[in-house]
Amino acid sequence: MADTTYEIFPSTGFTVTHFLVSADIKKSLDFYSRILGGKVVMDGENGAPGVVQLENTWVVINVGGGPTDDKPNVYLAPPKDGGAVSGKRPLEYSVVPKALLLLLLGSHFGEGQP
Question: 52: helix, coil or strand?
Fold first, then answer.
């Protein structure tokens, strides 16, 4: 049986962390935990980022920021236009039927495939 104990800072191997910028950390935490079945590790309170564990993947959700002294023209911000896309994260999820997942993602992320 495979080891199903995952750590954000593993003692061996590696882990994958996705950093997402969101205008609403609580809403994003709700989506990744309630809809996708992730475990909320940090709830985003008091200016801290939210963190969700999805099996052996971690999703860090924050409001963005910057620019910084070393990158004065770079900042992180959620899309201002509801149709704008800043990235794509294909997910294969065995528990949620694909048609339901496509419906859920399609209803939130615009036309076509998620």
Answer: strand
In tens, the pLDDT along 34-86 reads: 988 999 999 999 989 999 998 878 899 998 888 889 989 988 888 787 777 66
Indicate the domain borders of the chain: 16-65+89-109
Q: Are 21 and 64 in contact (CB under 8 A)?
A: yes
**Amino acid (1-letter code) at residue 51:** V
Task: Give the predicted TM-score (pTM) of the model.
Answer: 0.67
Long-range contacts (CB closer than 8 Å, 24 or more residues apart) made by 22-27: 22/61, 22/62, 22/63, 22/78, 23/63, 23/78, 25/49, 25/50, 25/61, 25/62, 25/63, 26/50
Q: Is 43 exposed, middle or buried (0-12, 13-18, 19+ CB in 10 A)?
A: middle
16-65+89-109 has CATH 3.30.720.120 classification: yes
Q: Is 107 helix (H, G, I), strand (E, B) or coil?
A: helix
Contact in structure between 25 and 18 (CB atoms under 8 Å): no
